[in-house]
Amino acid sequence: QVQLVESGGGLVQAGGSLRLACTTSGRTFGNYAIGWFRQAPGKEREFVGAISRWMATVYADSVKGRSTIGRDNAKNTVYLQMNELKPEDTANYFCAAGPRITTTEAYDYWGQGTQVTVSS
């Protein structure tokens, strides 16, 4: 069992930045790909980006060029750095862990989410 905890969300003005973190206490964290997803009120959950166990990354077009995902396996943490935030980035952000990197929701474990609100 892998328990994931997101942090770093909050209220930020448009154009600002946030760094979200996804942390787990699992000893095998380095073996998992980590995906980031978000869900805005009344909308479907959507893929944001992901990082493989070998540091390969993939991003949704909506955040590409504005976001960076990195991982520190020694700290059991994956980060999502988001810059040039827009009001449409407002959502609850989730991280998920699975055996392979994918843009789908085919991850085995999910966190509870952290809220990001971008004011115009």
SSE sequence, one letter per element? EEEEEEEEEEE
The residue ranges in which pLDDT falls below 50 over 5 or more consecutive positions are: none
State the total count of DSSP E strands: 11
User: Largest sheet, described in full?
Assistant: 7 strands, mixed
Task: Please explain how this structure is put together.
This protein has 120 residues and is mainly beta. It contains no helices and eleven strands. It has strands at 4-7, 10-13, 18-24, 33-39, 46-51, 57-59, 67-72, 77-82, 91-98, 109-110, 114-119. Strands 2, 4, 5, 6, 9, 10 and 11 form a seven-stranded mixed β-sheet that branches. Strands 1-3-8-7 form a four-stranded antiparallel β-sheet, with no helix packed on it. The protein is globular and about 40 Å long.
Summarize the SSE layout with pairings:
Layout: E1 4-7, E2 10-13, E3 18-24, E4 33-39, E5 46-51, E6 57-59, E7 67-72, E8 77-82, E9 91-98, E10 109-110, E11 114-119
Parallel strand pairs: 2-11
Antiparallel strand pairs: 1-3, 3-8, 4-5, 4-9, 5-6, 7-8, 9-10, 9-11
Could you give a quick summary of the protein structure above?
The strands form 2 sheets. Strands 2, 4, 5, 6, 9, 10 and 11 form a 7-stranded mixed sheet that branches.
